[in-house]
């Protein structure tokens, strides 16, 4: 299935709210990704996502609408050669290879655009789909921190996957 990575636009608000307001997505995200996902939260997200130069957060457009998001977040201080990768995709499009391909595109973009040597992602131990997508995109499991996260009343494992710049 084809998709396009592009900047977010204010007219993405209806599809953003429609797809993001899903407990099956929110359960795999940090609490900064709210549930319910309201229009107010969506406007705030689009404003934040369009505020960076160079671009850091992209809409994943599928079938003509914003059906997910992916971002690369350069770190600071002693972690300044690292960037964190975060992403989500609307549930109707899961299992089609979209996220794996989008991860690959953003990794290439990140290494070309930012002065970094490592890109990492931190899926929950319960998020098997995300773990598989990262592995297919060339990420390696660097660590598992057992029962360190607390989400929806339960403790979860935090995994750290990373890919490093070659050459």
Note the topology.
Elements: E1 4-6, H1 13-20, H2 23-26, H3 39-49, E2 57-62, E3 65-74, E4 82-89, H4 98-113, E5 118-121, H5 128-136, E6 140-151, E7 154-164
Parallel strand pairs: 4-5
Antiparallel strand pairs: 1-2, 2-3, 3-4, 5-7, 6-7
GO molecular function, one term: acyltransferase activity, transferring groups other than amino-acyl groups
Pfam families: Acetyltransf_3 (PF13302)
InterPro entries: Acyl_CoA_acyltransferase, GNAT_dom
Q: Can you characterise this structure?
A:
- The chain is of the alpha+beta class and 167 residues long.
- It has one domain (4-164): 3-Layer(aba) Sandwich (Aminopeptidase).
- It contains five helices and seven strands.
- The chain has helices at residues 13-20, 23-26, 39-49, 98-113, 128-136; strands at residues 4-6, 57-62, 65-74, 82-89, 118-121, 140-151, 154-164.
- A seven-stranded mixed β-sheet has the order 1-2-3-4-5-7-6, sandwiched between helices.
- A hairpin with a 2-residue loop joins strand 6 and strand 7.
Task: Write down the CATH topology.
Answer: Aminopeptidase
Q: Using only CA atoms, what is the Rg?
A: 15 Å
Average pLDDT taken over every residue: 95
Q: What number of structural domains do the residues give? A: 1
Question: Class by helix and strand content?
Answer: alpha+beta
How many individual β-strands?
7
Largest sheet: 7 strands, mixed
| CATH homologous superfamily title | Gcn5-related N-acetyltransferase (GNAT)
């Amino acid at each position: 299935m084809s998709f396009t990575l592009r900047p977010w636009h204010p007219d993405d608000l209806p599809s953003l709210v429609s797809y993001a307001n899903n407990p099956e997505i929110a359960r795999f995200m940090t609490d900064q990704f709210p549930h319910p996902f309201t229009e107010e939260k969506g406007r705030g997200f689009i404003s934040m996502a369009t505020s960076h130069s160079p671009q850091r957060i992209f809409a994943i457009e599928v079938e003509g609408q914003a059906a997910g998001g992916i971002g690369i977040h350069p770190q600071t201080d002693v972690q300044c050669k690292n960037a964190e990768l975060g992403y989500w995709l609307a549930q109707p499009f899961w299992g089609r290879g979209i996220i794996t391909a989008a991860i690959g595109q953003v990794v290439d973009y990140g290494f070309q655009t930012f002065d970094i040597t490592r890109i990492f992602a931190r899926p929950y131990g319960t998020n098997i789909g995300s773990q598989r997508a990262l592995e297919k995109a060339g990420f390696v499991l660097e660590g598992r921190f057992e029962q360190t996260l607390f989400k929806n009343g339960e403790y979860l494992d935090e995994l750290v996957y990373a890919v490093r710049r070659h050459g």
